[in-house]
Amino acid sequence: MNIVLGVTGSISAFKAVDIMRLFQKDGHLVRVIMTASAQRFIAPLTFETFSPGNVFTDMFEKHQDPLAHINICRDSDLLLIAPATANIIGKMANGIADDLLSTAFLAFYKKVVVAPAMNSYMLENPVVQENLSKLKARGVGIIEPEEGTLACDYKGKGRLPEPQQIYDFCMKFAVGAVDV
Question: Do 103 and 69 contact (CB within 8 A), yes or no?
């Protein structure tokens, strides 16, 4: 299976490396799209070390395919966004395409999974909940965040699940074994 892993700006972005490695361990090709905010938490080089030539950061970089948002998606089977911030969830729910990841989402016509990760106050905000409901109604798989201590030292729901849980969810979702 070919996977596009979208990484957004969350403190839990470091877990995306382990998610990528789990897919690779089972023989899946993983291409990574990082938002500008994600790059403030973890460097593209970290992903490039394990997936040479398969890390994309900007639609308009000279050395990058100008149609990357289309070509990355063309031969991929699953788009996983982990961690998924309130920002990318809002863009996805409302058709906003202003960076490589949100544009790739709009060009992607196969299975999509998001793993939200954010402060529980943000997660519980009615706007975020409405956006998640919109995505779910459109067939996007939503991996529920876990409860625990968050980056702000607050305890609540919003933690990114462990990489193995995300991997397992995606594998079941890919074959239709998980209801949306």
Answer: yes
**Cβ–Cβ < 8 Å for 2, 27:** no
Question: How far apart (Å, rounded) are the C-alpha atoms in residues 155 and 148?
Answer: 5
Catalytic residues: 152
Query: Distance of alpha carbon 40 from its chain centroid, rounded?
Result: 16
Name 147's bridge partners.
Answer: 157
Q: What is the pLDDT of residues 102-155, one digit of tens each?
A: 999 999 999 999 999 998 888 999 999 999 999 999 999 999 998 877 676 777
Which contiguous run of DSSP H or E holds residue 163?
A: helix 163-174
Top-level class of domain 2-174: alpha beta
How many CA atoms lie less than 13 Å away from 154 in the CB half-sphere?
10
Residue percentage of the chain with pLDDT more than 90: 72
The residues that bridge with 6 in the sheet, in sequence order, are 33, 81
Q: Please choose, from the candidates 127, 122, 102, the residue with its C-alpha nearest in 3D space to the C-alpha of residue 114.
A: 102
On the CB side of 104, CA atoms within 13 Å amount to 35
**Beta partners for residue 56, in sequence order:** 33
- What does the DSSP assignment read for 21-41? HHHHHTT-EEEEEE-TTGGGT
Question: What pTM was computed for the model?
Answer: 0.93
Six-digit token string for 67: 């149609």
